[in-house]
């Protein structure tokens, strides 16, 4: 608590400078308000280890995956969303840890890909859901990854649908700025081989990036940290040239230890990457996707559903085969 009060006091004294130079409207830095990242006690990896203590793979999965800080994803499965986010950040706050949350419920989610299709029933339903999401966090420190794939998933959409999606994201950012002043929100910007940097910079800007802390890369994908850093820098070069600002970015390193083989959906031979921490060329390296959770009914996850924990995949990711 003393750490948080010191951080808030420093932020208040620096307020004029923060608004002139900081990359988001938030004065508070949630990383200085907490003592490290939160380990989700109810992750799919944790639950599997607890349910299978005699399995020969359990020790490796527990040591290398289940006890690493990673994000919790929230969507239609989360029940009353404000209650769910409030309980999660509250539990982290009690331990003086920084939680990472993923908002994954946008209307027409994964509209073109389809493996994770779903989301809110309408744009207005999403607006209500994300407002409650932010309200549950309230003033406690948190990091939020906003709607993975939403700005890369444009291939089959009409301009009207694109405008609708960008308006939903802009509205979401407004809610976090209004209700969750100690939360850093990162808009998802896909990965280095999905959309060129100039196009992604335009999409981010049109969806309200100025209101966000920054953008996220490589969520649920496999590209190396170096590739993502180069891409993030390229996006920032475009933002600077076109719109006069840049933003910090974070990279999902949960499954990029062996890089990508060009496949995105449950490829074999992948490996866990650098555990969650600050730095590394990006503002933060985060585990956003849980290693071992399926991308869908494809690859080495044939017969599974998106998000299902596959212990054989998790175990192989520990060793990279």
UniProtKB/TrEMBL annotation:
EC primary class: hydrolase
Active-site annotation: 149 (proton donor), 295 (proton acceptor)
Annotated GO biological process: cellulose catabolic process
EC number per UniProt: 3.2.1.-
Binding annotation for substrate: 73, 194, 221, 264, 289, 293
Keyword Disulfide bond applies: yes
Presence of keyword Disulfide bond: yes
InterPro entries per record: Beta_cellobiohydrolase (IPR016288), Beta_cellobiohydrolase_sf (IPR036434), Glyco_hydro_6_CS (IPR001524)
Keywords for the protein's UniProt record, in alphabetical order: Carbohydrate metabolism, Cellulose degradation, Disulfide bond, Glycosidase, Hydrolase, Polysaccharide degradation, Signal
Signal peptide: 1-27
One Gene Ontology MF term: hydrolase activity, hydrolyzing O-glycosyl compounds
Homology family: Belongs to the glycosyl hydrolase family 6.
Entry protein name: Glucanase
Organism of provenance: Streptomyces poonensis
């Amino acid at each position: 608590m003393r750490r948080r009060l010191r951080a808030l006091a420093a932020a208040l004294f620096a307020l004029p400078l923060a608004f002139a130079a900081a990359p988001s409207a938030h004065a508070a830095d949630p990383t200085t308000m907490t003592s490290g990242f939160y380990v989700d006690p109810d992750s799919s990896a944790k639950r599997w280890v607890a349910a299978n203590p005699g399995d020969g793979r359990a020790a490796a999965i527990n040591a290398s995956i289940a006890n690493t800080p990673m994000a919790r994803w929230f969507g239609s499965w989360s029940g009353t969303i404000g209650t769910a986010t409030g309980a999660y950040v509250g539990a982290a706050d009690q331990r003086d840890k920084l939680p990472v949350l993923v908002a994954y419920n946008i209307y027409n989610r994964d509209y073109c890909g389809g493996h994770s299709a779903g989301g809110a029933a309408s744009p207005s339903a999403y607006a209500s859901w994300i407002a409650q999401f932010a309200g549950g966090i309230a003033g406690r420190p948190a990091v939020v990854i906003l709607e993975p794939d939403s700005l890369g998933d444009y291939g089959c959409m009409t301009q009207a649908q694109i405008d609708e999606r960008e308006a939903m994201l802009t509205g979401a950012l407004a809610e976090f700025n209004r209700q969750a002043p100690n939360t850093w929100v990162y808009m998802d910007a896909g990965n280095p081989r999905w959309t060129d940097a100039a196009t992604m910079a335009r999409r981010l800007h049109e969806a309200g990036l100025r209101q966000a802390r920054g953008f996220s890369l490589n969520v649920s994908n496999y590209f190396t940290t170096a590739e993502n850093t180069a891409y993030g820098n390229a996006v920032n070069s475009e933002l600077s040239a076109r719109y006069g600002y840049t933003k910090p970015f974070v990279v999902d390193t949960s499954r990029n230890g062996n890089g990508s083989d060009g496949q995105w959906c449950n490829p074999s031979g992948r490996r866990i990457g650098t555990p969650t921490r600050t730095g590394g060329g990006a503002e933060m390296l985060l585990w956003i996707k849980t290693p071992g959770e399926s991308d869908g009914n494809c690859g080495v996850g044939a017969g599974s559903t998106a998000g299902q924990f596959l212990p054989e995949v998790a175990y192989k990711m520990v060793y990279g085969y």
